[in-house]
Each structure stands twice: as C-alpha cells, then as structure tokens.
Amino acid sequence: MSRRRKKGHGGHESHERWLITYADLITLLMIFFVVMYAMSSIDQSKFDSLSVSMNKALNPNNKVQIDSMGNTGIISKTTKEGEKDAKDDKTQLGATEAEKEQQRLDDLKAKVEKFIHDNNLAGQINVIDTERGVQITLNDTALFESGSATLKVEAQRILGGMAPFLQIVPNEIAVEGHTDNVPINNARFPSNWELSATRAINVLHDIESKGVPAKRLHAVGYADTMPLGPNDTAKNRSSNRRVNLIVLREHKAESISPIDKEHVIQP
C-alpha cells in the first residue's frame, strides 16, 4: 500500500526584497547629493560634516578621506579663484599704501618749499618730486667752502630747519654728493670721489645728530659722473656741485633706478 506524500511547504517566499535595493539606492542618492552640495562651496566645516555622514552611511569602521578630494577640478578652481582674490586684495592694499605715501611726500615737499620761501633760500635749495621720491638739492655754496667738506655754520642752520620735516616721514633717505669735473688732488681728497663722498657723509651725520634715525640714512658720492649740465661755464659747474637729500619712495621700488636720469644731462 503506497503512501501519499504530503506536499511540503518551501521556505516562506519574501515579497519585500525590493525594499532593500530601494533603501540602498536612496542611501546612495543621498550621499551623492550631500557630496555635490558640499563641493559647491568649499568650507572646512562642511567637509567635516560630510566625512561624518559618509562614514555612518557606508561603513562605521572605515573613515572616508575627504582630504583626498582636494585635487579635484572643482576644488582646484576654487583655490585658484581664492588666490586671485588674495592677489587682488594685495594689489588694492598696495595702491592704498602708495596713495598714503604720496600724500606724505606731498606734505613734505610743501613744508620744504615754505621753508625755502620763508628763509629766502630759492637760489641755494631746490625741491622736486621725482620717480625715486622727493629730492631736495642743496648747492655746495650753501654748504661748503670751495674744495672743503666741512659744513658751514649757516649750512648747519639750514639742515637743522629741515630736519624736523625729515623726521616725520618713515622713508629711507639717500644723501648723494656731486662735484664738477675740475680735478682735485690734495692730502685729504685725492680725487672728486673722496670729496663728494665725504660731503655726503658729513651732511648725513649732521641730520642724524638732529634727530633723523641713522637706520633710515645712507650716503654715496658720485664725483662728477652725474652732472646736471655740461661743465663748460662757471655757472654750470656751480650747479653741478651739490648734495641731494632724496626721501625715497617705498612703493614701486622695482621701477626706481639708482639715479633719476630724467634730471641729468650728460656732458
């Protein structure tokens, strides 16, 4: 007698497996939009938040290295834009500082002009605004005896009157000595180089003693190499014998040459 087998029931068939796939898809979409949102505006706090979210969503045991995204095109573009903005800000700041400096130099020039006018020194001192800075030119007759580098008493008074103007500006000051082309050869000054340099140094020491900081000063002698005019007349030679006090610009230094040749005529 045969036995009839009972139909066994297989495992319970699940009709909800699609929910797992759906949940995975939603999770991935959420991660995608979070990444896109964070990358749209680079911010450290957003990156930190994104890292935490991705770690939780993907695998709590694996840390997502958000820093590695720094080489993506979007971040590189943002970095370049940030660098450009920084350069623009620096340029704007430089322009503002240059304007402030120009105002200081204009004020200095005005004060020196007033000093010259009030003391009837128009024939002995001249002041101009050059590319290098404000240049105060003192004729040698106002400063020294012929062939000498010792400052006259009147010269010390003149420099003392201008020293307060030079103290209030922070710029460096170049003291430059010049001579004519008449040779000199004595025990103290073997040539015009020594004469021009010593005259510049003595003027430097004098304004330093009157309160202009030494760290802002330097002196140089040019002998007869940079004349204002040809040394063919006594008047021209007198003009070439001079000491320049140049209050140097701090900005646009790359465009400044050692000597402002715009005001120099080669013989």
UniProtKB/TrEMBL annotation:
Basic and acidic residues composition-biased segments: 78-101
Subcellular location per the Swiss-Prot or TrEMBL entry: Cell membrane
CDD domains in alphabetical order: OmpA_C-like
Stretch list, region Disordered: 73-101
Top-level taxon of origin: Bacteria
Membrane topology: Single-pass membrane protein
Any one of the GO CC terms: plasma membrane
Keyword Transferase carried by entry: no
This protein's record includes keyword Transmembrane: yes
PANTHER family referenced in this protein's UniProt entry, alphabetically: LIPOPROTEIN YIAD-RELATED (PTHR30329:SF21), STATOR ELEMENT OF FLAGELLAR MOTOR COMPLEX (PTHR30329)
Family: Belongs to the MotB family.
Protein name from the UniProt record: OmpA-like domain-containing protein
Organism: Tumebacillus avium
